[in-house]
Known about the structure:
alpha/beta, single chain, 17 helices
Amino acid sequence: MREDLLYHIWKFRKFDSQGLKTTEGEPLQIIHPGFLNENSGPDFFNSRLEIGGQQWAGNVEIHIKASDWYVHRHECDPAYDNVILHVVWEHDAEIYRKDESAIPVMVVKDLIDSTILENYRLLLEKKPQKINCEKEFSGFSDFQIQHWLERLYFERLEEKSKAILEVWNRTGNDWEATLFIFLAKTFGLNQNGTAFSDIAHSLDFKILQKNSGDLLKLEALLLGQANLIDSEDTYALELKKEYEFLKRKYALNNEHLAKPQFFRLRPDNFPSIRLAQLAALYNNKRKLFKDIEITYSKDDLSNIFELEPSEYWQNHYNFGKPHSTRKKKLTKSFIDLLLINCIIPVKYAYNLAGYPQDLEQIQELISSISAEANAVVDIFNFLKPNIAQNAMESQALVHLKKRYCDKNGCMRCELGTSLLNKSPKIH
């Protein structure tokens, strides 16, 4: 038995509610079970009950064993003083508040349909190859899946927005600087995202704005802070000289910054190329966020990222290693990645901060982008072919796998909980 199942049972009243009584024999009526608390404190808040003919409003705490109250030291935490009911699987101890008044107890062990318990056991105790409900997944209706994926996508945006708003607060509520930091992280991809983010944090964004329009200086700032100007060819020496001047002028420090990695990267994703492209972007867009703020069309947003780095990079992937001339524009797939992982989350965070954005247009925007191809999407496509039709759905599937499936969070998942009452039992 796990507490997440008990949360589900209490929240949706999956038990025989006729003639409910506390362990003291008092009649119990559940007017409203309350709302699940995702943070610290009692498990459900704002519950409304009638116990022994008297109405109560307060919190409900749920445990496998009643004695867990003392194991978790709730008797020492004033947050639990307003608990009006203790819901337990096993009543192995009497529980008292700090003022020594007894807390009413409801035991659910003998009230639950055995089908729910057996289905829950089978769902979590078997050893899946991919996810717990892999044998049942193809049986979920398209409507059921799409409804859940839409909710998961916005849950993912909420999660990403927390990190964005934290940076926004640290920048003194500067959206241009915040966008630059998250764009840099996205340009760095998985391998160099942290390194690029650290580089962006190390630069006062106003320095970039002051040097906008001078591509040599912007490349010197970004590549210099990244410790990547390590060649003796003519252009590298020019950048190195410029960087040393800017370093003294703005009192820059790059000694603590990790050098971005080239290992196992395709040349188009070399950090030297990506930073040169980022420099080209800010060479043309001193106030990029202002354009992002008012734009919802995928085509219009993609046009913002139609850029080319300086001439040197047309025949170099790294310093001192020339190749035949080849334009280094951002590809459509890379621009889609920027929209998915940076632009849309920043727009959503902007809305959460109190600056209205059209959420319907944001949903239309993410839905207009092709579904991503990755290992997680492959898993779900194997279980139910063509499940991800666009980027909103592929992002939602990534969130589902990482935040629910990998953590056995079936009781928090609409699909998982729908299996509990299924008859015949899941196999």
